[in-house]
Amino acid sequence: MPARKQTTRKKAAKQDFDHRFRAIYNKDVEWQEDVSNELLTLPPGVKVKIFAHDPVMKRIDMKVKFPKGYVEPRHTHKSWHSILVTRGRMCVAGKDLRPGDYVFGWDLPHGPYEYPDGCEVFVVFMGEGTQHVWEEEKHLKHKLKWEARSAAGKKAAAEGDTARKQALAEKRTAAKSKAKRKTRRSG
To answer: How far apart are CA 30 and CA 32, in angstroms?
Structure first.
């Protein structure tokens, strides 16, 4: 590549992101809840620590913490991700994954992921977006496949299961009410 074009690209990259070397202590990065809802668009409860976000490369390096009993819906997103389990359990694709185990996903449907005893992962997203696209009704109908090992995990999984069933019932009741109102207006 001619030197001039390469220099222009390097200048543009420096303006959008600092590509210098860095070393970061985990304890110096705060867990964030509200960011995870915008960034990942998952059901509430997930926390993230963002270590690096490079808009030029379209890359985000982060830790994600899933609470005990959490179910991540079957989903797609406009990026690929590499996930390394660092704590707890991630149950997906018939596998009970533990620290050191790895998952790769792309913009093809994958999941659901179950976290019966909670889990922490390190994720690298690369691509057009980290936002998860999923169907709420399918998520609410999800039946747990993995059993928690801890008492706290069993309690959280049961509460999550009950909450999903209740939300599904409320959604169906709301849909019936809407249909009745529509029928009255047209009749």
So the answer is: 6
CB within 8 Å of 145: residues ≥ 6 apart: 91, 114
Domains for the chain: give ranges and CATH numbers: 15-186 (2.60.120.10)
Q: How many CA atoms lie within 13 Å of 70's alpha carbon, on the beta-carbon side?
A: 20
Side-chain-side CA neighbours of 5 within 13 Å: the count stands at 2
Per DSSP, the chain holds a count of helices (H) and strands (E) of: 4, 9
What is the spatial distance between Cα 128 and Cα 150, in angstroms, rounded to a whole number?
38
Q: Which SS3 state, helix, strand or coil, does residue 123 take?
A: strand
Summarize pLDDT for 54-94 with one digit per residue, the tens. 988 999 999 999 999 999 999 999 999 999 999 999 999 99
Identify the CA nearest to 114 among candidates 82, 88, 152, 136: 88
CB neighbour list of residue 40: distance below 8 Å, 6 or more residues apart: 46, 48, 64, 130, 131, 132
pLDDT (tens digit per residue) in 115-137: 999 999 999 999 998 999 999 99
